[in-house]
């Protein structure tokens, strides 16, 4: 931790935490919206390149004969996700299983950046002249909301494609409360309102759940890092806080392995469930 | 920490990855896996078929062996029978041959007896003649002659 910690120590613990939670930003226009978090986008693109760079060549070389170790590994993931999707969605779709695979692998990789020592990459970034660097894309609300909105659009597209436009729009007003005669007109606004809430809640819950978990995880790593923020060998406290920091960092990292996998799985599973529900008739 | 343009970039980048995986990644793997499943299923079916064929062939071989054994036993029986017949015939032939030889020998013996008897009687006459002439040239002793003559007569 020492390099960045010493440099941040000037402003104390608050400054250190603030610094760590600040994105490397590029103001492309006026106003708060026209900003790009370069670190988030950069790390995401690198992770996507790694994923595609391994997955697509492996797919091209995929053989029906005896698979190599790497192919067997990918097939294990592919078959697992395929079976899970088949259990949830009883139709045929070219989109849903690849979408689930992409979500799981990408979210897992982005979450995994949380397990890289919290000061390592910012320290390297400082050496490269970058004033700020946040390396966990999923701890940036923009990433999770962006992915959740893409999933939202896909849910609508999926529903439209599987039900046809007539049924798709009709169901907005006739479900979940089914009625006959005059009651149909009475219940239509209620149904529509419920539908709007239902649809709006999905991306919000998807994105906030992932963001909350990863942000909290990152924050706890930062807090553990502050234990020895201004420590020096002359202080007696250093010899107490050092081992405590080591132990707590180890425990939190081990626990976090579980969280990052679980969150990636939840994001994927909920997406599959939402898409399945969108294709079903009410 | 605020929502900004990053959101759109992240959303689109994510969508692009989904599209790439959907087009160039996933189908290839599924095709390979399904093809392999098909091959394995075919292989298992072929193995099952081969095992059934082997079972059939084994049964047929056992049957053939049984039939061959049966046939061999029959052939041996017939051969033994034939051998017995041959042996019997040979024995009969031998007996016939022996009897033929015996009969011939008996005939010859009979003929030789007759011949010997004729010759003997011829020789007895000559001896009698010779004896008589010797006796006649000397003093005749009646009683001695009588005795000699009696003996001769007895011998003949």
TrEMBL record, chain B:
This protein's UniProt keywords: ATP synthesis, Cell membrane, CF(0), Coiled coil, Hydrogen ion transport, Hydrolase, Ion transport, Membrane, Transmembrane, Transmembrane helix, Transport
Predominant subcellular localization, coarse grouping: membrane
GO molecular function, one term: hydrolase activity
Coiled-coil segments: 47-115
One of the GO BP terms on file: proton motive force-driven ATP synthesis
The keyword Hydrolase is annotated on this UniProt entry: yes
EC number: 3.6.3.14
Topological category with respect to the lipid bilayer: Single-pass membrane protein
Ion transport among keywords: yes
Gene Ontology annotations for the cellular component aspect, listed alphabetically: endomembrane system; proton-transporting ATP synthase complex
Location in or out of the cell: Endomembrane system; Membrane
First-tier enzyme category under EC: hydrolase
Transmembrane segments: 6-26
Similarity section: Belongs to the ATPase B chain family.
Chain's role: F(1)F(0) ATP synthase produces ATP from ADP in the presence of a proton or sodium gradient. F-type ATPases consist of two structural domains, F(1) containing the extramembraneous catalytic core and F(0) containing the membrane proton channel, linked together by a central stalk and a peripheral stalk. During catalysis, ATP synthesis in the catalytic domain of F(1) is coupled via a rotary mechanism of the central stalk subunits to proton translocation.
Name of the protein in its database record: ATPase, F0 complex, subunit B, bacterial
């Amino acid at each position: 931790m020492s390099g960045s910690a010493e440099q941040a120590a000037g402003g104390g613990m608050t400054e250190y935490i603030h610094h760590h939670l600040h994105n490397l930003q590029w103001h492309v226009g006026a106003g708060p919206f026209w900003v790009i978090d370069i670190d988030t986008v950069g790390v995401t693109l690198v992770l996507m390149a790694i994923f595609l760079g391994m997955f697509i060549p492996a797919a091209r070389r995929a053989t029906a004969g005896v698979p190599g170790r790497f192919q067997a590994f990918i097939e294990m993931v592919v078959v697992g996700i395929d079976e899970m999707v088949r259990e949830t969605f009883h139709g045929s779709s070219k989109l849903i299983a690849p979408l689930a695979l992409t979500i799981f692998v990408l979210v897992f990789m982005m979450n995994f950046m949380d397990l890289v020592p919290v000061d390592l990459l910012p320290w390297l970034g400082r050496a490269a002249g970058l004033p700020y660097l946040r390396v966990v894309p999923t701890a940036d609300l923009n990433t999770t909301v962006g992915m959740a909105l893409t999933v939202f659009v896909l849910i609508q597209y999926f529903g439209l494609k599987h039900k046809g436009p007539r049924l798709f729009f009709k169901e907005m007003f006739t479900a979940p409360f089914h009625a006959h005669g005059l009651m149909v007109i009475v219940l239509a606004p209620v149904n529509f309102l419920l539908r709007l809430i239902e649809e709006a809640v999905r991306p919000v819950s998807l994105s906030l759940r992932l963001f909350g978990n990863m942000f909290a995880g990152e924050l706890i790593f930062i807090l553990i890092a502050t234990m020895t923020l201004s420590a020096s060998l002359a202080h007696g406290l250093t010899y107490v806080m050092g081992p405590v920091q080591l132990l707590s960092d180890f425990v939190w990292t081990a626990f976090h392995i579980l969280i990052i996998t679980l969150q990636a799985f939840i994001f994927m599973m909920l997406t599959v469930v939402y898409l399945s529900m969108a294709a079903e008739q009410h | 920490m605020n929502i900004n343009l990053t959101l759109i970039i992240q959303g689109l980048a994510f969508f692009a990855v989904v599209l790439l995986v959907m087009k160039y990644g996933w189908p290839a793997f599924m095709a390979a896996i399904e093809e392999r499943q098909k091959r394995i299923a075919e292989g298992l079916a072929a193995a099952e078929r081969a095992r059934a064929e082997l079972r059939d062939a084994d049964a047929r071989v056992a049957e053939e062996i049984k039939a061959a054994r049966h046939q061999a036993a029959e052939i041996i029986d017939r051969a033994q029978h034939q051998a017995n017949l041959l042996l019997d015939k040979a024995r009969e032939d031998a007996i016939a041959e022996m009897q033929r030889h015996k009969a011939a020998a008996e005939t010859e013996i009979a003929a030789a007896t007759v011949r010997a008897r004729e010759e003997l009687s011829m020789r007895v006459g000559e001896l009698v003649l010779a004896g008589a002439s010797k006796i006649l040239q000397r003093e005749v002793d009646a009683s001695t002659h009588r005795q000699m003559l009696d003996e001769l007569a007895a011998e003949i």
